[in-house]
Amino acid sequence: MKSETYIQKAYRCILQNDFEEALRWFEEAIQANPGDAEVHYRCSITYGRSNRLEMAISHAEEAVRLQPDKPEYALHLQHIKAAELVQKARKMVEGRTDVTKSELYQAVSHLKSAVAMDPLHSQAYVWLALVYSELNEHALAIATLREVIALFPQESSLQHIMEELKQRLKSYLQEPASDRKRGHENGR
């Protein structure tokens, strides 16, 4: 079968929200024509939508390697790499009560890199603000959230997070100074 036939089948599957089957057809198209940068790019997008970022990065890198003059391929690669950094940072802190200060700062580093790679990645900003708040860096948390609200003013959920951060700041400021100092010494 020709790679165009596999691609048509992949698109049909995407329209039916069957991304796993679409990925199978994209991989078949790549087997039939491994030098087609556009197929690697489309395959990468589908892997990204399926949250399989390692494969998404692999195919995005191949698309860029095959056709470095296509800016959309390079932008997509940056977006996927930023998403991977956000995912790493989230895994480090989400739902954990034993996160160390060192891990929080490592998460900050990942999230700052994600924002630098993809300045429109709203989740990178949100997670950065939340991690700053965990570090009791409330002013940085609020400033970071203000940045993303300026980018996405229609997102009402961001206003809710802002109110939560302001409440955390208010609670923090109402703590006795000795308790705040002890919290910093204990890594929180």
UniProtKB/TrEMBL annotation:
Signal peptide (UniProt feature, chain positions): none
TPR repeat extents: 3-36, 37-70, 122-155
SUPFAM superfamilies on file: TPR-like
InterPro entries on file: TPR-like_helical_dom_sf (IPR011990), TPR_rpt (IPR019734), Ycf3 (IPR050498)
Protein name: Uncharacterized protein
Superkingdom, taxonomy of origin: Bacteria
Pfam families xrefs: TPR_16, TPR_19
UniProt KW keywords: Repeat, TPR repeat
